[in-house]
Amino acid sequence: MSVPVDAAARRRAAFHHLEVSAVRRLTEDAIEVTFGVPAELAGHYDYLPGQYVALRMNMPDDAGVEREVRRSYSICAAPMAFEDGSSEIKVAIKRDLGGEFSTWANAELTAGMSMDVMSPMGAFISKHGRNGDAGMHNVLASMNHPEELAGRAGTFVAIAAGSGITPVMAIARTLLAGNQDTRLDLIYANKASMDVMFLEELADLKDRYPARLALHHVLSREQRIAPLLSGRIDAAKLETLLNTAIHTDDVDEWFLCGPFELVQLCRDVLAARGVPKDRIRFELFSTGLPDRPEGQAGRVVVADESAESYKITFTLDGLKGEVASPTHARESILNAALRVRPDVPFACAGGVCGTCRAKLVSGSVDMEENYALEPDELEKGYVLTCQAHPTTPAVTVDYDV
Fold it and tell me: Which residues contact 306 (CB under 8 A, 6 or more apart)?
């Protein structure tokens, strides 16, 4: 087992250069990528099932000019370590229409290549049976024991679509292995059987836990024997699935992962059925909506000392930074901070991943979107700096809290 690092350091968005040890084809449009983690870095890559890593590399644009590209991908394997202290991180990359990085990775990425991989982050994790932050820290100190990661027995439901299965695989494997009384229902939506990621792994998991894992494959463009499992998941189909296959009153925790429309549909249906918000975990890989802002990280802003501006102060790694942001530019706190400190943490810059989270110490901000912070985090004053815009002359945030 790796030596645990300080909990705060573990959550610091730090990049390290890792080598790709294996690339495995999952479907025609998806691959599983394994990064080897040497023993000296293993503690920095401890993670909870459901968390993600950001990948960073330089890619040429249409004009051939190199620029930095970052993409976030969920970890698909349960935590483990080897006898020599090393470990590994496995992610699944599905080719997206127009996605330059995912297209390149599916066509060109091979074992032996390397790139920058951020330390694991994310709150799409099971909190069932945990005693607040202290419980989470205890789990982080013993990452490679599934029985400790899973906590007490419970009944869980996961609803995933497409590549949304990636974090769910890690969560399902860990929960089922951790307690012999745990039960999990998985509704997994895809276009056709050829698009199902981890098909063999899901079948193996079903064979291993036949009485405790229920799989419901729903295919939108392929006819199945059961009409309920054919066609697109809409409110009516979801209600029928919940009424016939799952008893919502008995579910301890729900996991939702997929495109914006499906996740929002599930949240609305569950809310209408009286499911408490604190039992629902959800994650988006992107908003999937063209009218949603995708962040402004890296947008060029020219400061004019003679013009009115906001004073933005931030703390990162114990060091204080300060930058003036022109009021007319309406740039995000993240964008302003990056102009004076290029190592400010971020990944998606679209309000989805939560990597750029910081605590608002003073002043006030307006957040355009939030798909990452939970209600209790908002109450404690945390903001997504990629979506936060100053509304007072001076604003101070702390990335270290």
Answer: none
